[in-house]
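On clarity, I found the account of how folds are encoded harder to follow than it need be. What matters is that the chain and its backbone geometry are given together, residue for residue. I therefore recommend that a typical entry be quoted early in the introduction. An entry of this sort, consisting of the sequence and the corresponding backbone structure tokens, reads as follows:
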Amino acid sequence: MGGKVIDFHTHILPGIDDGSRNIDTSCRMLEMAVEQGVEIIIATPHFYASRDRIEHFMEKRECAKAALLEKLRDFPLQLKCGAEVAFFRGISRAEKLHDLTVEGTELLLLEMPFVPWEASDIDEVATLAEERGFHILLAHLERYLDIPGNKRRIEELLELPLHVQINAESLTDWRRRGRLVRMFRDGQAHVLGSDCHSLHRRPPNLAEGRAVLEKKLGREFLERIDKGGCELLGI
């Protein structure tokens, strides 16, 4: 059985973070995603432990999800909710972290710090993956590649049992494209996300990244990406 086209990283829920501001914007973003062939969209609003409690975040997310589900019947796609969880010191000990995984899975979309990483940061991710049983999906790894001093830490991170999400937009940048295509080819990157936030600033654009992968690595490779994405979601 073939896979489905999945957008693993979106800020499409209305009024919960710096993504979609209202239902009308969310619906237009859904229309754009459907036009690009997306079949499953994962809503991953930002979660910052320094700003919010998990319980409060979940209440807000469920309200935003309920509002969007009222409209979703008009669209031929499936919505799953998770969170883009910003790394924080002590995350490996957080008790209710499972609430932030993608619904029905142990998949946790993790956003690493935008500063040079410490060895202890890698140790915490290792604990999440190897001891606590989370299926870690690193958000937009390409955004950390050029942070001074991070090369060694990224190598250490990629040795862990985890998966890597790349933003579709990054594949359209000729300065990054070759490096990211090689990461996909070599099994260091696994799935795509649009990381869409609005209609104009970072809009849904999964099709653009998929087109680059198909051109560079072939249709069969793209189908393997889709199948692997379904396996991550257990479908």
